[in-house]
Each structure stands twice: as structure tokens, then as C-alpha cells.
Amino acid sequence: MSEIFYTPLKQIRDQILKRDVKARHVTELFLTRCRDLNPKFNAYITLSDKALEQAEAVDKAIEKGEKVGPLAGVPLAIKDMLCTKGLKTTAASKILNNFIPPYSSTVVERLEGAGAITIGKTNMDEFAMGSSNENSNYGPVKNPWDESAVPGGSSGGSAAAVAAGMAAGAIGTDTGGSIRQPANFCGIVGIKPTYGRVSRYGIIAFASSLDQAGPMTRTVEDAALMMEVISGHDAKDSTTAQVPVPEWSKSLKSDLKGMKIGLPKEYFSDEVSEDTKKVVNEALRAVKEAGATTVEVSIPLTGYGVPIYYLIATSEASSNLARYDGVRFGYRSDFSKVPAADLEEFYSRSRGEGFGPEVKRRIMLGTYALSSGYYDAYYRKAGQVRRLLRDEFSAAFQKCDVLLTPVTTAPAFKIGERVSNPLQMYLNDIFTISTNMVGIPGMSVPGGFSASGLPIGVQLSAAHFQEEKMLNVAYAIEKALGAGGRKPNGL
Amino acid sequence: MISESELKKVAKLARLQLSNEELAVYGKQFSSILEYFEQISKVETANVEPLVTPTDMEQNLRPDLSQAWEGAETAMANAPDRSGNLFKVPPVV
After folding, report:
1. Complex ipTM value
2. Measuring CA to CA, which residue among A372, A317, A393 is closest to residue A129?
3. Residue-wise pLDDT tens digits, A312-332
4. Which residue range(s) make up the domain with B9?
5. Number of domains in chain B
6. Which chain B residues contact residue A335 at CB under 8 A?
7. Which CATH superfamily is domain A2-255 in?
8. Do A238 and B79 touch (CB under 8 A)?
9. Would the CB atoms of A195 and B87 count as touching at under 8 Å?
10. DSSP A89-106
């Protein structure tokens, strides 16, 4: 059974449905592995004490011959950004250190409704603000492929959990690349769905016009299956779209005849490392062999992506994070010895102590961008450029079906390498942020490895609600290159 | 460049108590970050309506119906301090 940790989740489900193995046993195996490996990788903040109970319920239903969902008995890791009823949810922040949600997010409700087992809550950058998982109140996560390297972020714990075989699949959230970049650094598949495809209800808000939750898995088929479960309109999130949810996992095909792959020239700059170029070129060769044709396209505003993204995301964050005031839930400073002089100090001391350095930096930047005298030059201007950027993507999708690019300029960097320079850290995100700003679906699919053995992914994106096209290209790359879902050395 | 008094004003607006060390670090970092952000002023945006939400969606309202919920105890369970079903805060006036 040791190989179960690297078995695609669909196969685990099939074995449970055929009663080859009990869901309880599978969950027990994964929980034991999590306890063994977590001290090494720090992928989880909390393991669930209800996981075995959930798995037993699945076994009972199968024994009784009741209908069970498409994820029956599959142990999943959930980013600690999604509320789980009765299970501590921290957003990796001191300010939510003891928060036990009174309800579950729609995503978690749908996954559990489909039979999935929540085995734990994964580590992340505090409030999803970061690209390296170094901004966590619970310490950094290590990359299972190289413990001295970052797993990426902000969904670094979810990516590491899947890569280390500590979960059959995971949920991350992606505001500017937080699913795709760690998937790319850890050698797994990660999807950011179209904005409005997946409900944000019960997901701790960072930047509401950019946030989306999505799957992180070993295979494209697994990701497609999880997408089917979590997608679709939700009355509790008025920004979810009323569009049909296709059965992506059943329509996957690696024949790409008639498919046009667009290569935006701004993404193939000199800054891209040789290792990354090599993998992207192999993926290109694979899609051509599968029958696709390629066309050069242009997104001239790409170079402005980082400023407009960080102006919009920090502005929205400064507003969303205003709710943490130390009154109704969350951290409150100790006022017993030094009382607050006024109500303002009551708020500002609790917030000053409860938020970490990166979160405070972004609240400050966002407050500045929204403040009187700067609003037009920063927030409003960023929104205008954002519209022009969306127009450029729409024009590109007139010429092609799917865009193929690198996810990042280089594979995983070393822990500690970039922490002291926030601007340099923000520039990491240049290839992933536009996807969120224009609301299109994007994903990272494993393509190969660097000379030193670090995983490298390929980014695919498509027009709004065209996930199917992107998934088929990913499926063809996965079949041709076989670089995904592998077991790192030493595990 | 962002002055120290401007930075303090922003911290006050954001309800964040920051130490002098934090203010010094943020001040230095903001100058280079904002200088980098300034480049968006070069993009011609006359008569462009800002894009606030990325997909074109209809106004999507649900009927305003009352629904059963967990009850007051669940809502109060995370309170840092409470008095019965009231959130308790220290006197601050």
C-alpha cells in the first residue's frame, strides 16, 4: 500500500468503491504519513480530528449500497484560507490564531458532500499574501523536492502536501498566482478557474475581484474531477456565474487537431531561465505533435502587470481586512495592564500586534492608494489599465484558443533568498497576475525538471469559461512528457 | 518619496499601530515600490472606464428569505471577551 500516496485520487476512489480498500484505512494511512512528515515539511497547520469519522461514514454508505459522491473516501488537504465548520481556520495569521468557523465554505461543503475527507488545513502565506510561504505565522513550508527551497506561495502547504504524498489532492486559492506558482515549484497540477466559476463564500477574503479557489493534484484528470465538484452557481456568492458546469474529466482528449496555441511574445523574454525555456519548448513540441498549431500573439501591457495588480490587490485587501478589529472574533491585545487611550487605540494596537509584516505592508499600500489625493492616480488609474489589459487578452483569444507560457522565470528559489526585498518578491508574479486581473482560467501543468532536479511547469490559459480547451492541452502535455505527480527522491 | 508624517497618517487611517522601526522600514520600501508603480502614469487611459470586476455578469440577487442558523452561542463562541450574549470590550473613553 505504500504506493497509495502517489496514486491519482480517481484510482483511490475506484478502489474504495470496489471495496478493495476501506476509506477509513486510506485516511488512516494518510494521517499517519502526515504526522511522520509534517515536522520535516511543515505543510499542515492543523490535522482534522474528524477525518476518520468522515471516512467511516463513507464506508458505511458503501456497505449499505447507498449512492456516494465522485470523491468518495478521497483524503484532501484544504488551504487554511477556507472556513471549515468546527475546525480551526487561521489564514496562517496570529490574528485568527484561535478562530473556529461556525460554518464551512461552499467549496468544502461541496467536496465533503461528494464524499471527500478533509484531513487537515494547510500552511500558507498569511492571508495568502506572498509567493514563497515564508510569510506564515506558523513558519515556512519546505519544498519536498529540495528542503532548502521554497514550495512557492501562497498555497505552499497545499502544494507540498500533494508533492510529499501527504494528501491525495488539495485545494488552494489563487489571487495572483497562488495556486499555479506553487504547483509549478512542486511538480503538480494546479488550476485557477474563471472568476465566478467557483463560490468564494466562506473563503477568507483577500482581494475579492481576483480571488478564486481551485484544485491542486497529481494528474489533469484528478484536477478536472475536483473542478466538477466545486464549480457552479452558489446563491451565497452573487459573483458566481449561472453557466453550466461541463463534465471535464469525461471529455479529456489529447488529440489537439484544430487547436491554436498562442505564444504571447512578452512572456518569452531574456529573463526566462534556460531550464524553464527548455521545458516550455518541450511542451510546445508535444502540443504540435498532438496536432495543434502555434501562433505568436502580443499582450503589450504585460510589463505594467505588477504595478496594477499590487495597486488593486492591496486596495481591496485594505478594505477586506478592516473587519479584524478585536471585538467579535480573532486576536485582541492585552489591555489589562496598559489600557487603550481611546477606541482607535483599541483597534490599532490589536491589529498592529495581530497582523504580520507583509500583511501590514499591504494594508498600508492599499490604504495609501485609496486615500484622498491619491485615489485617481493609483486605484482608479490601475482599474483603467486593467480594462485595457482585458481588451488585449480578448484580442489575443481572437487569434488562438489557449495561451502557453512559462509560469515563472525560473524554478523554486532558496528559502530566505528574497525576503528582504518586497519589490523583488512582487516581480516574481509577473507571468501569473494578469490571469486574475482579466478573470480568465489558468493552470500550471508539470513539464519537466531543471538540471538540478527541480520541477518546472507550463502555464496554460483560455478565454472566460473555456476551461475545457486548457484542460485538453494540459492532458496532451501530461501524456507526452509524463512529468507530473512523481515522487521526490528520498520519499 | 513618502514622508514620515504621510506614513503616520496612512497608519492612522488603516488603524495600525506601528513601531518606529516598522515605520522606518516601510518608508524606505514604499519609496522604491511607489516609484516602480508610478510607471502606470505612462499608459494613455483617457475616457477608459475602470474595470472593477473581471467578468461581465448580470446583477444576481437572491430572494430575501429568513433561514435557520446555528444560534447565538455559535456566533459568540469566538468572542475574545463576552458578557452573556454581548461582546465585551474594555472601557475606552
Report:
1. 0.96
2. A317
3. 999 999 999 999 999 999 999
4. 1-41
5. 1
6. 90
7. Amidase signature (AS) domain (3.90.1300.10)
8. no
9. no
10. --TT-GGGTT---SS--H
